[in-house]
Design a protein that fits this description.
CATH class of the largest domain: Alpha Beta
Oligomer: single chain
Number of domains: 2
Number of helices: 8
Strand order of the largest sheet: 3-2-4-1-5-6
Mean pLDDT: 93
Number of strands: 11
Strand content: 15-25%
Largest sheet: 6 strands, parallel
Distance between the termini: 56 Å
């Protein structure tokens, strides 16, 4: 039995851990058996959902799936473990006990100006990522929105407010949302990095009632108005009647396109 190559990736918020992992997966996912594990995400598994969508052949594990993850390691060629900034770096020692006696390499993705940090002491390899704010005093806010559908115009306005200081100093924001035309949309923001357009995930359009798949939002920043964030997110969500109306309109448009 071959020994899988295990890579543990850590780093600061927004520096590019998930981006770096995805770059590695694009090179090997088509030819190797790969598994991905990201603990500590609770009910808001944004990175796991994005990776499982982009790389459908990869086995993806998250919160509460440690046992299943460990059972799959012997069948894998490569293993990637993403250690979120919200987890204590020292707690990786507990992970090492679970992996024992399998060897693993450590990679830290950090801002270019970060020097002599705990990541530099810990990692076998340092990757210079995005020039992000690395203040560990920042707070984290998450909200799952499974089953909700959001008007895309309202989402664009909400995202603009998030990224322009309406709810506090936001340094990192990412989310997956089901919008009114049935698509699943990935949103990503890192302060100081040029903003990218919303990304449509490669998932079937959901045009029958409320979607039974994950959606949610994660924000990192200072002085976050969490109550206002929660209320605005709720205000963006459509009623049952509005969902049915939008879905009927989209189905009619799609039918016309197929008949044209």
């Amino acid at each position: 039995m071959s020994i899988p190559i295990i890579t543990v990736v850590a780093g600061t918020s927004g520096a590019g851990k998930s981006t770096w992992v995805c770059q590695q997966l694009r090179d090997i996912a088509a030819v190797e058996k790969v598994i991905y594990f990201s603990p500590g995400t609770g009910t808001v598994p944004i990175d796991q959902t994005r990776i499982s969508t982009e790389f459908p052949g990869i086995k993806v594990f998250g919160e509460g799936e440690e046992g299943e993850f460990l059972n799959h390691i012997p069948q894998a060629d490569a293993v990637y473990i993403e250690w979120g900034f919200y987890l204590e770096l020292g707690a990786i020692a507990q992970l090492a006990q679970l992996l024992d006696p399998l060897p693993y390499r450590t990679v830290a993705v950090v801002p270019p100006d970060l020097k002599n940090s705990e990541f530099h002491t810990w990692a076998n390899k340092i990757i210079r990522g995005a020039p992000t704010h690395s203040d560990t005093a920042q707070s984290l806010w998450r909200a799952a929105s499974n089953g909700q559908v959001i008007d895309e115009d309202s989402l664009e306005e909400f995202w603009y407010e998030i990224t322009h200081g309406a709810y506090g100093i936001v340094t990192r924001a990412k989310g997956i949302f089901d919008v009114n035309d049935g698509r699943a949309i990935y949103c990503d923001f890192v302060a100081g990095v040029p903003q990218t357009d919303f990304l449509e995930l490669d998932l079937p359009r959901h045009l029958e009632g409320r979607p039974q798949r994950f959606s949610g939002l994660e924000i990192v920043g200072e002085n976050l108005d969490k109550a206002a964030l929660k209320q605005t997110l709720s205000d963006c969500c459509l009623s049952d009647a509005a969902i049915v109306q939008y879905q009927q309109q989209v189905k009619e448009i799609l039918l016309e396109e197929t008949q044209a």
